[in-house]
Amino acid sequence: MGVVNVTPDSFSDGGRWFDTELAVKRGLDLIAGGADLVDVGGESTRPGASRVDEGEELRRVVPVVRELVAEGAVVSVDTMRASVAEAAVEAGATLVNDVSGGLADPAMVPVVATARVPFVVMHWRGFSADMNNRAVYGDVVGEVLAELRQRLDAVVEGGVDPDRLVVDPGLGFAKTAAHDLALVAGLGRLRRELGLPMLVAASRKRFLGRVLAGPEGEPPPARERDAATAAVSALAAREGAWAVRVHEVRASADAVRVVRAVQEAAESSESSESEEMAEVAEAARVAGAAGASGAEGGM
């Protein structure tokens, strides 16, 4: 999933794609680089960000969605507003990616249920302006699991088809770097216990900056964290993630392909070993039958 931020204040690209024409070109470039779908958003959710008004978000997002779809792209919309989700779906978006999981706007779940499109439910504890104050956990993996289960149940009760749900652990949202790393380490458990397709969105986030910080503790700029992002993409792929959401596609697409090739090689090896064992067992059975027949003939 390639990211197109149609915002002037994104933490990762600082408004480089704020213009509609540039945003569309960016989306097509991401697809050329290996993205399977493009996630278009018009509101920054970086820590401390203030909300954009509804009209402005619609103005930013809908034309980009419409033009990308016209170019043959598969598009998702990244929004917390039901009105924006509805307009984007009408413009051709095929998935709604709501970082609040429907909590920010009570109308979101009914809109998604009516539209019958896939819905990404992310772990969320509140808006960007004060989410850092909510990063308090005893057991981050266990609590994220419990809170996601609760939210997923509410979304299904609201009419969304369970088969259309995707789950996101919400890396960087009301989480410290230690929390994010624990969640990456727990991706396999999250996927197994939730039993749903999982989206992992680690791209360029603060916890990677902390990992890569120099001797003085200064993290590298967001755009210098793509190799670290690809490492998380590989880890996520190994744990069976449905998709990774990234700003630069090529390295992560390559990482996912390598993981897939290794997994296929392992499966092929296991299959060959199983066939070999079956052949040995069959040979033993035939030899045993022949021996029994010979013994009977000598009696």
From TrEMBL:
<dbReference type="GO" id="GO:0005829">
    <property type="term" value="C:cytosol"/>
</dbReference>
<dbReference type="InterPro" id="IPR045031">
    <property type="entry name" value="DHP_synth-like"/>
</dbReference>
<dbReference type="GO" id="GO:0004156">
    <property type="term" value="F:dihydropteroate synthase activity"/>
</dbReference>
<keyword id="KW-0808">Transferase</keyword>
<keyword id="KW-0289">Folate biosynthesis</keyword>
<dbReference type="Pfam" id="PF00809">
    <property type="entry name" value="Pterin_bind"/>
</dbReference>
<dbReference type="GO" id="GO:0046654">
    <property type="term" value="P:tetrahydrofolate biosynthetic process"/>
</dbReference>
<dbReference type="InterPro" id="IPR000489">
    <property type="entry name" value="Pterin-binding_dom"/>
</dbReference>
<dbReference type="InterPro" id="IPR006390">
    <property type="entry name" value="DHP_synth_dom"/>
</dbReference>
<keyword id="KW-0460">Magnesium</keyword>
<protein>
    <recommendedName>
        <fullName>Dihydropteroate synthase</fullName>
        <ecNumber>2.5.1.15</ecNumber>
    </recommendedName>
</protein>
<comment type="pathway">
    <text>Cofactor biosynthesis; tetrahydrofolate biosynthesis; 7,8-dihydrofolate from 2-amino-4-hydroxy-6-hydroxymethyl-7,8-dihydropteridine diphosphate and 4-aminobenzoate: step 1/2.</text>
</comment>
<dbReference type="InterPro" id="IPR011005">
    <property type="entry name" value="Dihydropteroate_synth-like_sf"/>
</dbReference>
<feature type="domain" description="Pterin-binding">
    <location>
        <begin position="1"/>
        <end position="257"/>
    </location>
</feature>
<comment type="similarity">
    <text>Belongs to the DHPS family.</text>
</comment>
<keyword id="KW-0479">Metal-binding</keyword>
<dbReference type="GO" id="GO:0046656">
    <property type="term" value="P:folic acid biosynthetic process"/>
</dbReference>
<dbReference type="GO" id="GO:0046872">
    <property type="term" value="F:metal ion binding"/>
</dbReference>
